[in-house]
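Summary for the lay section of the report: proteins are chains of building blocks that fold into shapes. Here we show the chain for GAK system XXXCH domain-containing protein and then a coded description of the shape we predicted for it.
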Amino acid sequence: MASEEQTKRLLSAGQAAELLRALAAELDQGRLGAAVLADQALLELKQALKEKDGKTSLELKLKYRGPAAQAAPKSAGPAPRGYKSLKKAMAKSWGQLEKTLAQGQTPSPELTRLFVEQSRRMVGFAGKGDEHYPAYLALVQALQTAVEAGALDQARQAAQDLAQRKKACHEQYK
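The coded shape description reads as follows.
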C-alpha cells in the first residue's frame, strides 16, 4: 500500500539546514520515514532548482531503489495522523524514556528510535512551535547518540535538556 506524507512550512535558512541534517542522520541509520532500508540501499535523488518571478525554489525527491524496505518494528505502532494523536503517542514514548533513565538504565535503541521518529513528524506541523524545532531536533539527536553509545549520563543530560525545551515550548503554545 502506498502512502504519502507531505509538509510545507516557512523556515529560516538555519531551520531548513537543521531539518536536512536530521534527514541525513536518519538516512545514515538506514531509515527513511517509517521504513527500514535494506543493506546497501540505493536512493534515486531528483533535484530541481528553479527561479521564477524573483523567487528561487529547490525541490528534492528521494526514491528508494533497492530490495523491498522492511516495515518499522511492530513496537512503533500505527502512525498517528493528526497532531493531537501524535503528541499523545509522544507523551507515552517520552514517559517510558524518562522512567527508564530514572531507573538508572539506558533506554532501548528501539524506544529511542520511535521517539526520534515521532519528533521528526512533529516538527512537520507548522505553527506549533516552529522557532523551537531546530534546537529541539538537535537535543533529540543528542539523546539518540547517547543511547546508541550506551552513555547513561549523557542520555540523562540530553533528556533533562529536552524536558526544559519542552516546558518552554508548551508554556508558549499550550
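Put simply, here is one thing we learned. The longest helix spans residues 152-173.
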